[in-house]
Design goal:
39% of the residues lie in helices and 23% in strands. It has 568 residues and is an alpha/beta fold. Strands 6-10-11-12-7-8-9 form a seven-stranded mixed sheet. A seven-stranded mixed sheet has the order 15-14-16-17-13-18-21, sandwiched between helices. A five-stranded mixed sheet has the order 1-5-4-3-2. It is elongated.
């Protein structure tokens, strides 16, 4: 270790800094291999505050004290915490949202140019002592750890992994392994971006990382090198307690992380591919979902008022079955939780069986499926019926046994809320028929079926008027005359929506309410065409019509509804 230099023989202390002192400090720094800024501060014999004021005066920069730093908020999305610590530079925003780049070393020839390329908005440059910057970052990280301590630990009965991976900003910055740092940074960035899934796809050149945000995949990064890709996938398998030596068959696992002040579950699917293995991580942020569930009602989900009024009437029935259908990620479970929150008045016993339990609702008995221990939907549903329930929610009907028990439960005086995978309300009828459910029992039990989708809405920060071309109008089934009733708009893309032009999603739905005519048509196995005609006469509107109404109101685009809904 180098011994401190005695610079008093070289330069006498002065109340200000001069170019001569800087030149002398450069020479001494080169000889001693010490940082220029430390040498200059030492030979100045000034205290830290006076030194920074003198340095700012010399370099013509404003100087921020530690109190001034605390008055602003860091923008780690612009400059990551780990980079801020390494470069002794932080991006801050004041109360008005203006950007301030504060750094310690004005003699770094590359830092200013790198930051200038990174920043795409007006910015004020300033100096602060490196110890103040370090203290600011430490205080911010300590506040995050304090929030971590407030989250109670709770076990997951079907999780074999009791360890929780820490992916805080500090842990990422302290990682020495490039692979560990990559995986932790990927998880952290996905949570910050609000992603629902992380896709890690191997290709001939390495690994491609994608996030699913608002139901759409977007590429966020890549790694060059097959070896690095294999190491990243192996790290995921180690965290999930999977067999890292097995590369020929699919594997499923899960693990937990502590990030952003909360505990988050990750469900992992590993799939062999031509170039190695791919991994998909489903993010189950239970605390965030529980926060959303507080005060959750159907009104906040974005459905049309007419749809929700009829759906509420069905949910108020004392018995029967109410089905919600749609693909994975269409918000079916959220809808059921919304209606449970509304009908949960404390006078009824409400029991749910789910895989997994996503929301935690007060006053509701929630049972997680654990197939490893033999607790399936069917077995759990049988046990629930012996628990004197009034209302039952079954997370998903996957097999004939569960379907039969759910129908019998609805026929014996229980209100059963459940989901099933189907494209529309009419396909549900065929699904239950294929699961060998007696048509007469099915139509006697069912009160209604709602199919739904989530449509991305335009970003309010960058939305502008638009006029689609004739080809898009024709593809969308809209005549030039009918187009006059539409308010066509599109998002240009901005920082608020990550350049996509969309921000947030809204639910659209079609609701089939069963009446005697529709029941009779199903029991007599009439063609689906006649069932559709009877449904329309009973007030059913298709999801396509609901989606077109969103375009008319200027809430989304034709491209988006063509992606989400069928054109026929």
């Amino acid at each position: 270790m180098n011994q401190p230099l005695d610079h008093r023989s070289v330069l006498q202390a002065t109340p200000v800094l001069t170019l001569q002192q800087v030149k002398a400090a450069r020479e001494l720094a080169a000889q001693s291999k010490q940082p220029l800024l430390d040498v200059l501060e030492e030979i100045s014999t000034l205290d830290s505050e006076s030194f920074m004021l003198a340095l700012g005066s010399l370099m013509r920069y404003s100087v921020y004290s530690i109190l001034a730093l605390y008055d602003m908020q860091p923008d780690f999305s612009l400059l990551a915490f780990s980079d801020a610590g390494k470069q002794e530079c932080i991006a801050l925003r004041d109360a008005e949202g203006k950007l301030h780049m504060v750094y310690a070393n004005p003699f770094d020839p590359h830092l200013h140019s790198r930051m200038s390329q990174l920043v795409r908005e007006p910015v004020s440059w300033a100096l602060a002592h490196h110890k103040d910057i370090s203290a600011f970052l430490s205080r911010y990280e300590e506040s995050m750890r304090a929030m971590d301590g407030l989250v109670p630990e709770h076990g997951d009965i079907d999780s074999g992994n009791n360890s929780i991976e820490d992916i805080s900003l500090r842990s990422i910055s302290e990682d020495t392994s490039p692979v560990v740092k990559l995986v932790r940074s990927t998880l952290y960035d996905a949570l910050k971006a609000g992603a629902s899934d992380i896709h890690m796809e191997t290709d001939p050149h390495g690994l491609t990382i994608k996030y699913r945000i608002d139901g759409v995949l977007s590429m966020v990064g890549s790694i060059n090198g097959i070896m690095q890709a294999d190491q990243a996938i192996s790290r995921i398998k180690v965290m999930s307690e999977l067999d890292i030596a097995e590369r020929r068959i699919p594997q499923d696992g899960r693990f937990k992380v502590m990030a952003l002040g909360r505990e988050v579950d990750m469900r992992v699917s590993i799939m062999p591919s031509v170039f190695g293995e791919d991994a998909v991580l489903r993010i189950l942020d239970r605390k965030a979902l529980s926060d959303q569930a507080e005060g959750l009602s159907l009104d906040v989900l974005g459905f049309e008022p007419a749809i929700m009024a009829r759906f509420r009437l069905l949910a108020e029935e004392p018995y029967g079955m109410l089905l919600v259908t749609g693909p994975t990620g269409s918000g079916k479970t959220t809808t059921l939780y919304g209606i449970i929150s509304e009908i949960n008045n404390g006078q009824d016993k409400i029991v749910t069986i789910e895989d997994p339990v996503e929301y935690q609702l007060p006053g509701v008995l929630q049972i997680p499926v654990n197939e490893k221990k033999g607790l399936t939907f069917a077995r759990g549903l049988r046990s629930i019926l012996r628990h004197d329930p009034d209302k039952i929610m079954v997370g998903e009907i996957r097999d004939p046994e569960t379907a039969q028990i759910a129908v019998q439960s609805a026929l014996t005086g229980h209100l059963v809320l459940t989901t099933v995978h189907a494209n529309n309300v009419f396909d549900v009828i065929g699904r239950f028929t294929n699961m060998n459910v007696d048509p007469y029992s099915f139509v006697s039990a069912i009160n209604g079926i709602m199919a739904q989708r989530l449509v991305r809405t335009l970003c309010p920060h960058c939305v502008v008027d638009d006029q689609p071309d004739a080809e898009l109008l024709e593809k969308s089934g809209i005549s030039p005359e009918a187009a006059l009733a539409y308010r066509f708009r599109h998002g240009q893309g901005c920082g608020q929506c990550h350049g996509t032009g969309y921000k947030g999603r809204k639910a659209i739905a079609e609701l089939l309410v069963f009446n005697d005519l529709i029941r009779e048509l199903i029991v007599t196995r009439e063609p689906v065409r006649k069932v559709k005609e009877a449904a329309r006469a009973n007030g059913t509107r298709t999801m396509r019509e609901a989606a077109l109404d969103m375009v008319k109101r200027g809430e989304t685009t034709l491209q988006e509804i063509n992606r989400v809904t069928s054109l026929v």
